[in-house]
């Protein structure tokens, strides 16, 4: 109930914002939405499965130093620096959650606002809240990295390699999995026929790489015994995430052509989404790929709201309700499927 209340308070002002014609009023409503989401995430207590792990990491990095963190490969370099500064300057572990929430939400709101002429800000925020927001309570480093990647989409569209690769390197500094975004600049292509060829190549390459990976894992697991095999089993895939993802794929596939006609940027955004779909497909074999897929899945924050703009009158009878219902169910699944999120506690009250 707490989650529903807070999220309603965060999203409703932005929906009102879309009805307002006064610029200053718009800014106030957006700020209110930002403030609710920020407060809810920044001042949480023992919410998220790795909450105390991040506090332990903060204390170790702060007391033992950045060189220890890097030499022992305990965490990524920029996240180590981030913790070291907080420990030695502010001496307050709560700032890990406050500042990480500030960084991610600022990046998300910035990208959505930049695209507000082509989409509903309220719908975009609704998608972020129901799909990705809860994960930032557990995956702090990954969330910061994903926020930076999301911001870098603009430079894929504008073909600005300097800014794009700078942001990717920055994202890698917070989570090594962001390295998967390095070749994306050379894969996405406004010339669709060339993208299709590159897409097929990526599909074949990923399939071959995963077959080799699972082959060697089975061999090594056989030599090292049950304990190792059990740990390896934790990174093997399953069908749950694929089932959860499939409705989004269907929605975007149905409206793909109209999305591109409506907004030329969607040529790149849809290509990012298709690449992420490859990774989601292969989570059947390797579950940890869903962490890499999140960098691509953020594209739905921009794509799904634009579907509402390209629907015809008949489609508007059913599709908006199906889409909203799906994301509400997904939101419920995220809460009740992760008991570390319940109950919600706050350090202030």
UniProtKB/TrEMBL annotation:
The chain crosses the membrane at residues 28-45, 93-113, 125-152, 164-188, 200-226, 238-255, 267-288, 294-311, 318-336. The keyword Membrane applies. The keyword Transmembrane helix applies. This is EpsG family protein. Signal peptide: none annotated. Keywords: Membrane, Transmembrane, Transmembrane helix. It comes from the Bacteria. InterPro entries: EpsG-like. Pfam families: EpsG.
